[in-house]
Write a structure and sequence with these properties.
The complex is a heterodimer of chains A (about 375) and B (about 400). By secondary structure, chain A is of the alpha+beta class. Chain A is about 45% helix and about 15% strand. Chain A has ten helices and nine strands. Chain A starts with 7 loop residues before the first helix and ends in a 12-residue tail after the last helix. Chain B has 14 helices and seven strands. The chains are: A alpha+beta (about 375), B alpha+beta (about 400).
């Protein structure tokens, strides 16, 4: 039966994340963006929220929360509302742990998951996007071939968060039998982590390019059994991107709305002018529209039904709407929107990335 | 718990209504678009019989006391199907419609009993709502039609235009028209009341039936009220002029119920266009590929996917507004959001669909051009795009109508 109300437990998670986003993430967002650094304190406090541990089964030391993409989408929206860079930093280990939880073999789970349940923030990450204009997630340029009993990986990746600190990187590649993912350990011969990337947005998040020159890894490092279908991860990534986009868009909307009610022109608050008020109304409608598409795709994932169409449409819609909304928010502030004293230009730069971000299987 | 699965009951209703749309509406769709002002009586009689006046297409009441219901959601789902069949025919189906929704929203228990309980009896009936006037549309607080008390009745004077099913409700059936009129112009909004005028009441005349761009199977009437007398207890709610505009707000609450329904109808038209484009492309070996990167997609595919996402976004906003109503939650904001989104989305979707199919889209041999004409009304009636933006803006900004006009 159709229902738009999250469970009490989900509401609780949402409230917790909302408070954390407002009180911890947002106050540091600007400085983190300017300096390109995530404060240690935030990392520690984020880890205490158990964003990573909660999804890991109890048998491996985690909290064993049943996986729910819907819960994930609520959580991601709130964290991204605080700040996208900081949120992605805190969520990065999920790039490795969630695929392992969903598709990993017992041995793989046994080997890797317990490392992410300790007292300290521990990094795992994933490499999906490749540095080319015609990057195609359905035909990855990075190749995996069998040699003897091993897999050999070669290719280039980019936008790999926290690669330098990562215990292991989940590398997505084209195998002879289709798309596959491989757990590549830190320091694997042939794996080169390049210079930290300089991106338009998400500037506080460290991201790196990778070069894989015949990286040889054992057969059992392939995620799941041979031929494990990765589509659920691809779909989850799209739901995640859409949810993050809603958070950023809402951040920009709230900022612009508050500004418009304060700022006066022609004797009234500019929000009292239809040119501004209608823009804000459209933004509010689009935020809700995008959120509902993300929810529906997430719900579909949770039903274990094919969610490719829904998740793709949600992501496409969200990457455009979040861009439009953040751009309109900036426009509401006029010249002030262009100045870095205000947050909206940061939201716009972050939103521009959603069309590009991929491989974020974190819901 | 968040859930997007329709209940089995709603699904089976949808299936049934879809069959009606496909087998009874589509075959006569073009004919009654071309033969504007003629009524498809076979269809109308059949619909009256099968629904037995049961307002599958009428605005709903909030049902909070007996726990959540699915009434409004089910109605949205059904209306999407009917409008997928033909929006003009859907609007012309005899039922208590918008007039009934006003009675349900603003009437007393006695009035609901008197006007609605036996509406389904006898021959097909219509009930219409008359708000718009030649000199005021969106600003319904500026209406000039007057009501004055004379002994044991009200006397109405004025002219109403753009009254959907006005001809059928006022003259061609035993239905009624809900007429908005002011008891005291100097009282502004507070002086506005809604009056039930039963069909055939002396002094109520239909003077014009409009020729329109689309929804031609549905009549849009001009109704003149000339010293039209109605019983005292036909005023919806209280006859007192309140100090505040609460009464006006009560009548405006009708729109909380009807806007999701208009949005659902819009979505039906949009889906008709989208289905037609998809089927036509498929026939010619073009399948839309989801998940393929932008640089590998054709413009056709990108446009199609955008239309699909727009339509689904509008549908989910609509379902949410209906669901809130079913659960006794105040939904003015969400109802306006759904209406604003759906009206514009399907206007653009149907325009793009015509463009995509080139001469096929433009030709009256196919129904696509008709759907584009039909779709546009959803961006206008039951509150224009702009009025709904205004309502959303006031709500999100916390402004009164004085602060944001």
């Amino acid at each position: 039966m159709v229902n738009f109300k999250p469970t009490d437990e989900q509401e609780l998670i949402r409230e917790t994340m909302q408070a954390f986003a407002r009180e911890v993430l947002r106050p540091h967002a600007r400085e983190a963006d300017e300096r390109g650094v995530v404060p240690e304190d935030i990392v520690r406090r984020g880890w205490e929220l158990a964003l990573v541990q909660s999804t890991i089964p109890e048998a491996f030391g985690g909290y064993g929360d049943a996986r729910s993409a819907v819960t994930g989408t609520l959580l991601l929206e709130e964290l991204a509302y605080g700040d996208l860079s900081l949120a992605l930093h805190l969520l990065t280990p999920r790039l490795l742990t969630l695929p392992l939880v969903l598709l990993g073999t017992d041995a793989q789970q046994q080997r890797w998951l317990p490392r992410f349940t300790g007292a300290e923030f521990t990094v795992g990450t994933a490499a999906f996007v490749e540095p080319r204009w015609d990057f195609d997630p359905t035909a990855l340029g990075t190749r995996a071939v069998r040699k003897g009993g091993d897999w050999v990986l070669s290719g280039e990746k980019c936008l790999v968060p926290l690669a330098r600190q990562a215990e292991a990187i989940l590398v997505y590649a084209s195998a002879p039998d289709g798309p596959a993912a491989f757990v590549v350990e830190r320091g694997a011969p042939g794996l080169t982590i390049g210079e930290r990337e300089k991106n338009m947005g998400i500037r506080a998040l460290e991201t790196y390019p990778l070069a894989l020159a015949d990286v040889r890894i054992p057969a059992d490092a392939r995620l799941g059994r041979d031929g494990a279908a990765l589509q659920p991860l691809i779909d989850a990534s799209r739901v995640a991107v859409a949810s993050l986009a809603v958070g950023v868009a809402r951040a920009a909307f709230d900022y612009a709305r508050d500004y418009a009610k304060e700022r006066r022109a022609f004797g009234v608050a500019i929000a009292q002018k239809q040119a501004i008020a209608f823009k804000l109304a459209d933004m509010a409608i689009e935020i809700d529209a995008t959120r509902l598409l993300a929810w529906e795709a997430a719900w579909k994932l949770d039903q274990s039904e094919p969610a490719t169409r829904e998740s793709f449409l949600a992501k496409s819609y969200a990457s455009q709407s979040s861009l439009d909304i953040t751009d309109n928010a900036l426009q509401v502030l006029g010249g002030h929107g262009y100045i870095r004293d205000h947050m909206v230009e940061l939201f716009l730069r972050n939103a521009r990335g959603f069309a590009t971000f991929d491989g974020l299987a974190i819901v | 718990m968040i859930d997007f699965e329709l209940s089995d009951a709603v699904k089976s209703t949808r299936q049934m209504v879809h069959a009606v749309a496909e087998q009874m509406m589509r075959p006569i769709s073009r004919e009654y678009d071309e033969r504007e002002h003629e009524k498809p009586w076979d269809f109308l009689n059949t619909m009256w019989q099968v629904s037995n006046g049961n307002p599958i297409t009428a605005g709903g009441e909030r049902k909070a006391k007996e726990g959540p219901s699915e009434r409004n959601l089910a109605m949205c789902v059904s209306i999407e199907e009917l409008s997928w069949g033909d929006a003009g025919l859907y609007l012309s189906i005899p039922n208590s419609g918008l007039g009934g929704a006003a009675v349900a929203a603003a009437g007393t228990a006695e009035q609901k009993e008197r006007f609605l309980a036996h509406f389904g009896d006898g021959k097909p009936k219509w009930a219409a709502m008359a708000i718009t006037e030649p000199s005021c549309g969106s600003d319904s607080s500026a209406i000039q039609t007057t009501a004055r008390r004379e002994g044991d009745h009200w006397v109405l004077n004025g002219t109403k235009i753009f009254c959907t099913s006005g001809l059928m409700a006022a003259e061609k059936s035993e239905g009624f028209v809900v007429v908005w009129a002011t008891l005291d112009r100097s009282a502004g909004r507070a002086g506005i009341k809604a009056f039930v005028v039963e069909a055939g009441t002396p002094g109520m005349y239909v003077t014009k039936v409009e020729n329109k761009l689309g929804i031609r199977a549905s009549d849009t009437a001009t109704i003149v009220l000339e010293d039209c007398k109605v019983p005292l207890d036909n005023v919806l709610g209280s006859p007192e002029i309140p100090k505040t505009s609460e009464g006006f707000k009560g009548v405006m609450a009708t729109f909380d119920a009807t806007r999701p329904i208009v949005a659902a109808s819009a979505i039906g038209v949009g889906r008709a266009a989208l289905d037609f484009v998809r089927d036509t492309l498929k026939e010619h070996g073009v399948e839309v590929r989801y998940g393929v990167p932008a640089h590998k997609l054709t413009v056709l595919e990108r446009d199609f996917m955008d239309m699909e996402a727009q339509l689904q976004a509008a549908r989910l906003l609509t379902w949410r507004a209906a669901w809130m109503m079913d659960n006794g939650l105040r939904n003015s904001l969400e109802a306006s959001m759904a209406k604003a989104k759906a009206g514009l989305a399907v206007t653009l979707i149907t325009q793009k669909a015509v463009e995509m199919l080139g001469p096929l889209g433009y030709s009256r041999q196919c129904l696509l051009e008709k759907w584009m004409r039909d779709a546009k009304i959803n961006d206008i009636f039951e509150g224009t795009q702009q009025i709904n933006q205004l309502i959303v803006a006031r709500r999100i900004l916390g402004y009164s109508s004085k602060e944001l006009s």
